[in-house]
Specification:
With 133 residues, this protein is α/β, with parallel strands linked by helices. It has helices at 55-77, 91-102, 104-107, 121-131; strands at residues 2-8, 12-19, 22-29, 82-87, 110-115. Strands 3-2-1-4-5 form a 5-stranded mixed sheet, with helices on both faces. A hairpin with a 2-residue loop joins strand 2 (12-19) and strand 3 (22-29). It is elongated and about 65 Å long.
């Protein structure tokens, strides 16, 4: 039986697979750009020149980058018998939503989606080992 635990945030996914009591840890970088808005007022005086900031183009780019990130994760976990997803922010919720919409066979094997803080690799392995016992 192959059990997989995933800890992820917007920057990285740490995938711990446990098969026959052997653990394997993999990392997947998301490639999501940091959101730094450039623009705004060009002067300190009221009524000075204004630049229009297009938040929508940044958000659209982030959406496509997250979709590619989740696709890479789905490729790595498709052979799992049981899956648990952990993370500190909304990335884990977005991942389960993507799995339910586009990867129903994988989503059916997800046993839990839980909020957790950042942790070391050894703490992560221990938590996933204990989760599947």
């Amino acid at each position: 039986m192959k059990n997989i635990g995933i800890w992820l945030d917007k920057r990285i996914a740490k995938i711990v697979s446990i098969e026959n009591d052997i653990e394997h840890l993999e990392f997947i970088e998301s490639g999501v750009d940091d959101f730094h808005v450039v623009g705004g007022s060009g002067t300190k005086f009221k009524g000075g020149p204004q630049d229009v900031v297009q938040d929508s183009k940044y958000l659209e780019r982030e959406k496509h980058q997250l979709k590619a990130f989740f696709e890479a994760i789905a490729d790595k976990i498709q052979t799992a018998d049981q899956i648990a997803i952990f993370g500190p922010a909304q990335a884990n919720e977005k991942l389960i939503k993507e799995l339910q919409e586009n990867y129903q066979m994988i989503a059916a094997r997800v046993k839990a989606v839980l909020k957790t803080d950042s942790m070391t690799n050894n703490q992560l392995k221990s938590m996933i080992r204990n989760f599947f016992k």
